[in-house]
Specification:
The complex is a heterodimer of chains A (359) and B (385). Chain A contains twelve helices and ten strands. Chain A is of the alpha/beta class and 359 residues long. In chain A, strand 9 and strand 10 form a beta hairpin. The radius of gyration of chain A is 26 Å and the shape is globular. Chain B folds into two domains: 164 residues, no CATH class; 186 residues, no CATH class. The chains are: A alpha/beta (359), B alpha+beta (385).
Chain lengths: 359, 385
């Protein structure tokens, strides 16, 4: 396998100097291969954009190594940085088109960096604009386009040189749901075709599913996804509990019941799921998002049960921690009551886990 | 479209109102500079009109003379002493004084006029008066009038068209204008007349024939004026100075430039013009760079060099210089022709001066463009996103 397109090793970055110094990134360590789409998420201020600009050769890390397309960017000369920038397709948060140039001239600005002129230039410009659906707007100025069209023009400009690395900073931030979706799918398609490595910064949860891998940044450190999701979800559930306790318990009961009833025979086909969604929507009178939530929650419980039936479903040490912690929780009030003991044994049996306390 | 994109021009063109305002600002600066420079130039050119019109290789004058109008007298004998040098061909004593001219149509108004007296048999004024006029001034109380004198002296030119002479008075003496020469006014002189030395002494009875203001010296062909001057100065008393025509003109220019405030004011005005122009252009370009900061940072992120951006801004400043210069110089020329008509001053812009002002405009624009670009250097391209 060739060098990874992007290799970060112990990357740290801080703003300011002395007492005012503020560290933004801590020991970031990852590699991104050709054809891989990595989404960088995290709350604002977590350092996502900073990390992206480091990869984009727009600033230099104080510590660690940033290698893009085989070129070490730390302590690189300005000339080397410029050469790297030319091989990267950068998609900006707010399109950053030149107002005074037409759409095709904007794309040409990128193309002429590679010295491509004349007929080939014209063909490639109209080709790439055709692909992003702007074939009829070649000679319009950005001010004459909608937000989504402008963003697509920005993507065309970033992709016209067929870059081997594509960096996108919140490409959907200023777009509505549908245009945002279109834009992300466009990036995905183009990236797959050209086999580019893509790093996409976003805190738009609606587009996370295009990722091959999600890197979650928080306070400048990479965090595991499950940690991030747990934290997010529990926070949201707490909010729901606080502001609309009735709905919360209603949804929770529904999903609990669904997990028990609908999956009792362990066989759920696609058509059954569609039917369930329909019923939840029409009979229980739930909003589509609420239906999705119940489905996801019950599916999670169902998966937990079915993987429990498979002894390989949980790693040995995790299984041990699992049962041990159940005993510890039961023992929190000083003694393990017979009822508690019974439940634990039932769960362990259901999940196919060995009970260390049983003979 | 196939060639590279003229980004600077397109950016300027995109904001038409701003481009118009910028052009107007630079036009204004160009007019400011051109007018001040041209007035300054007119001051010097007009001050040496007589210096340039008289014919001589060397001129003798009192060392106390600092400018023509108030030239001091010196003994005529010093000039005749010079005739003894074999290199000298002829000498011409010249008498100068301001006299009080009475307006021929409105005798209640009188005005100072510059009176020149010389011996009509001598050389020196062939460039100003023709042979007939040389004869005319030999007749008592006849004189030749500068047709480009200020109109306050009366409609002498029109009157001479319909009559062979115009009667008037200088210093209360009856005189007749019988012809005209053409020279023009300066900041110190509003008009002039030329006559014979004898007529001069009739107008100024208190003046002595033996005390003159200038001595024009004509040398034999092929003699080195500087060498002769050294020779003259080493052999005659030190109470006179002898100058070449260039030195004589320089003396006058130095007086107006250095010992009167006028020269300084115009120099200062021209510098102010450049400074004001610089500030206007800087403001315009700075605002422009500021507005395009994000676009420039985007270009940097795409892989454009700082040099490319510098070229864009320089391109803009050169275009602005051109756009502002052409109307600016056009309006200036209109102003000059109007002002020349009114003042009689030599206000004609030559190619050299125009080129100099264009160079100044270009320097002004490019300089402020580069200054405005420092803003761009200071900004971290990553900060913009």
């Amino acid at each position: 396998m060739a060098d990874p397109r992007i290799a970060l090793k112990d990357v740290s970055y801080h703003f300011g100097k002395g007492a005012l110094q503020k560290q933004i990134l801590f020991d970031i360590d990852t590699t991104i291969e050709a054809g891989e789409i990595v989404i960088l998420t995290g709350p604002s201020g977590s350092g996502k954009t900073t990390l992206l600009t480091l990869i984009g050769a727009l600033r230099s890390a104080q510590k660690g190594s940033v290698k893009v397309l085989g070129q070490e960017l730390n302590n690189a000369k300005e000339k080397e940085l410029i050469m790297v920038r030319r091989q990267i397709g950068y998609i900006f948060q707010s399109h950053n088109l030149m107002d005074s140039l037409t759409i095709s001239q904007n794309v040409q600005m990128a193309l002429q960096l590679d010295g491509i002129k004349g007929k080939e230039s014209q063909e490639r410009i109209s080709g790439v604009l055709e692909r992003v659906g702007l074939g009829d707007h070649l000679n319009k100025y950005p001010s004459g386009l909608s937000g989504g069209q402008k963003q697509r023009a920005g993507i065309a400009r970033a992709l016209v040189n067929r870059p081997r690395v594509i960096l996108a900073d919140e490409p959907t931030a200023s777009l509505d749901k549908q245009s945002g979706r279109d834009v992300v799918e466009l990036i995905q398609d183009l990236a797959r075709e050209d086999g580019a490595a893509v790093v996409l910064v976003t805190h738009d949860n609606r587009i996370l599913d295009v990722a091959d891998r999600i890197l979650h940044l928080e306070d400048g450190r990479i965090k595991s996804l499950s940690e991030a999701v747990s934290e997010d979800t529990s926070r949201m559930l707490n909010l729901l509990e606080k502001h609309d306790p009735n709905s919360a318990s209603y949804l929770a009961s529904f999903s609990f019941a669904l997990a028990r009833v609908a999956y009792a025979d362990n066989e759920v086909t696609e058509s059954e799921r569609i039917e369930m969604r329909r019923i939840l929507h029409e009979v229980a009178n739930l909003a589509p998002a609420e239906v999705e939530f119940i489905m996801e929650l019950s599916m999670m419980q169902k998966r937990a049960i079915s993987s429990g039936l498979n002894p390989q479903g949980m790693q040995a040490d995790r299984a041990e921690h699992f049962v041990e912690s159940l005993y510890a929780i039961a023992n929190a009030d000083g003694n393990v009551s017979p009822e508690e003991l019974h439940e634990i044994k039932t769960i362990a049996a259901e999940f196919g886990l060995s009970d260390p306390n049983s003979p | 479209m196939p060639t590279s994109i003229p980004l600077g021009w397109l950016q300027l063109k995109y904001q038409k109102l701003r481009l118009f305002a910028a052009t107007l600002g630079i036009t204004f600066a160009v007019i400011l500079i051109a007018v001040q420079m041209e007035f300054r130039e007119a001051l010097f050119v007009s001050a040496v009109r007589y210096h340039s019109a008289m014919e001589y290789n060397l001129v003798m004058l009192s060392p106390k003379t600092s400018y023509l109008i108030s030239s001091k007298q010196f003994p005529r004998n010093r000039l005749y002493q010079v005739l003894g040098f074999e290199e000298v061909e002829t000498v011409s004593p010249v008498y100068l004084q301001q006299g009080s001219w009475r307006n021929p149509v409105d005798p209640t108004r009188s005005r100072n006029i510059f009176v020149v007296g010389f011996d009509p048999d001598d050389d020196g004024f062939g460039g100003l008066l023709d042979a007939r006029q040389h004869q005319q001034i030999k007749i008592p109380d006849q004189l030749i009038f500068d047709r480009r004198s200020r109109p306050e002296y009366g409609p002498v030119v029109q009157m001479l068209d319909s009559s062979p002479f115009v009667d008037t008075e200088i210093n209360d003496r009856q005189l007749s204008v019988v012809g005209m020469y053409s020279l023009g006014t300066s900041f110190g002189l509003d008009g002039g007349v030329i006559s014979s030395d004898l007529n001069f002494l009739r107008m100024f009875p208190q003046r002595s024939k033996a005390a003159i203001n200038l001595g024009l010296i004509k040398l034999k062909p092929g003699v080195d004026a500087n060498r002769v001057r050294e020779k003259i100065l080493s052999q005659i008393p030190k109470d006179v100075s002898v100058l070449t025509p260039e030195e004589f003109k320089q003396l006058e220019v130095d007086h107006w430039n250095k010992t009167t405030p006028i020269g300084y004011i115009f120099t200062f005005g021209a510098i102010m013009g450049v400074v004001v122009g610089f500030i206007i252009v800087y403001q315009i370009l700075f605002a422009d760079v500021q507005d395009h900061l994000k676009e420039y940072a985007t270009l940097k992120a795409m892989g454009y060099t700082h040099g490319y951006l510098r070229k864009v801004v320089l391109q803009q400043s050169i275009i602005l210089a051109l756009l502002g210069f052409l109307p600016g110089i056009g309006v200036s020329m209109l102003i000059f022709s109007k002002a020349a008509e009114v003042t009689g001053l030599p206000l004609e812009m030559d190619i050299e001066a125009a080129l100099f002002i264009f160079g100044l405009t270009l320097f002004m624009c490019a300089g402020s463009g580069i200054l405005a670009l420092r803003k761009l250097r200071a900004v971290d391209p990553a900060e913009v996103f």
